[in-house]
Amino acid sequence: xxxxxxxxxxxxxxxxxxxxxxxxxxxxxxxxxxxxxxxxxxxxxxxxxxxxxxxxxxxxxxxxxxxxxxxxxxxxxxxxxxxxxxxxxxxxxxxxxxxxxxxxxxxxxxxxxxxxxxxxxxxxxxxxxxxxxxxxxxxxxxxxxxxxxxxxxxxxxxxxxxxxxxxxxxxxxxxxxxxxxxxxxxxxxxxxxxxxxxxxxxxxxxxxxxxxxxxxxxxxxxxxxxxxxxxxxxxxxxxxxxxxxxxxxxxxxxxxxxxx
Length: 260
Hints:
Blueprint: H1 2-6, H2 8-32, E1 44-55, E2 59-70, H3 73-93, E3 101-116, E4 127-144, H4 150-159, E5 164-171, H5 177-201, E6 205-215, E7 221-228, H6 231-235, E8 247-259
Antiparallel strand pairs: 1-8, 2-4, 2-5, 3-4, 5-7, 6-8
């Protein structure tokens, strides 16, 4: 037997046996890590946490429309183009980046007048639609990253040809920052409560076995529904007093801990 193990074949078989036993041992130890891993803990405590965060909006958005009525489509488009270019140039000169000026709608619609035909011999043939011309409408959305300029820009676009201004709102360039802050505070609140409860019960916290959150994301703060620009208003503009204010975001969490 000793002669066999001292031979080349014997040494090779001995090495294979040692490797096999090592692999089996490692596999057995690995399986031990998962024994009971899927079993739901029977001893748990659940706590709730609350957090809130405040922040001043750093982004204002509004929309404006250019409307042109002319006899032909070409004339209406040319007039609308001249007006939108004037407004765009005004905005870029005021420091608005071109990437923050976006066309949201463009339409060309025929416009009709209803004309009542004259009655003859006691018979009234009714009215008919007569083409009056064409309306070109172009709507644009603007992002204002310096919120202190919002009031002046609302007035300025009207003086450059905007027919309607609407949808002024204040929000965040990163809408989730406040939400993350409020969640962190809520989790810290829940953890503190769990530690105090464990101390009072004379137990130890082992691990988190479940977590849920009920929070709200910061939505836009709307300033006004809309402004209509007339020739009289655009000739003597007065910038509106705009208040940015603060947004509040809250988070409610529920955390369940295994105890022992």
